[in-house]
Design a protein that fits this description.
CATH class: Alpha Beta
Shape: globular
Keywords: Cytoplasm, DNA damage, DNA recombination, DNA repair, DNA-binding, Endonuclease, Hydrolase, Magnesium, Metal-binding, Nuclease
CATH superfamily: Ribonuclease H-like superfamily/Ribonuclease H
Helix content: 40-55%
GO cellular component, one term: cytoplasm
Distance between the termini: 60 Å
Largest sheet: 5 strands, mixed
InterPro entries: RNaseH-like_sf, RNaseH_sf, X-over_junc_endoDNase_Mg_BS, X-over_junc_endoDNase_RuvC
Subcellular location: Cytoplasm
Structural class: alpha/beta
GO molecular function: crossover junction DNA endonuclease activity; DNA binding; magnesium ion binding
Strand content: 15-25%
Radius of gyration: 19 Å
Length: 185
């Protein structure tokens, strides 16, 4: 399986591509950080993020895109930019019929380090070890994107098994829609 992990952001958007599967160690395919100037219009910055991530999707052809689920932070402006960047990434994947998986920061940290509250240095150290890299991915956004991809590689088989075992809830019957009422003018 090939996973494109995305650590969304407007100023720095980490993107990492990792291959792996059952019984196979994760392998780095590509890592990059999309950077946009903070003084540019938000629409232009989102377009740049979308275009660069789309180019990576088209080049590396991932089976799935793993995106960090946005959590509230102290700075509302940062949250908005992060959510908007995540949205354009999800849209780009949907246009290519690539499934999108969302993982929380604590899920990612727990998957790669065994500690859901690990700091960035611990995550970077584990990503470096797991991918058998000679140097640490920099900046942290690059390491976080790779951690997202690794997290998805490891969590998706169990999630699929759980989904197969979980019975689907019966569909609720809903009342038919009310007839349309036309108003004479």
């Amino acid at each position: 399986m090939r996973v494109l992990g995305v650590d969304p952001g407007l100023t720095r958007c980490g993107v990492g591509v990792v291959d792996g599967g059952a019984g196979k160690p994760p392998r780095l395919v590509h890592v990059d950080v999309v950077r946009t100037p903070a003084d540019h219009d938000i629409a232009v910055r989102l377009l740049q993020v979308a275009e660069e991530v789309e180019a990576m999707m088209d080049t590396y052809k991932p089976d799935v895109v793993a995106v960090e689920r946005v959590f509230s932070q102290q700075n509302v402006r940062t949250v908005m930019g992060t959510a908007q960047a995540a949205g354009v990434v999800a849209l780009a994947a949907a246009r290519r019929h690539i499934p999108v998986a969302w993982h929380t920061p604590s899920e990612v940290k727990a998957a790669v380090s065994g500690n859901g509250s690990a700091d960035k240095a611990q995550v970077t150290t584990m990503v470096t070890r797991l991918l058998r890299l000679d140097t640490r991915p920099k900046p942290a956004d690059a390491a976080d994107a790779l951690a997202l991809a690794i997290c998805h590689l490891w969590r998706s088989p169990m999630q699929a098994k759980l989904a197969a075992l979980t019975p689907t809830a019966p569909r609720r019957r809903t009342a038919p829609p009310a007839p349309a009422v036309r108003v004479a003018r």
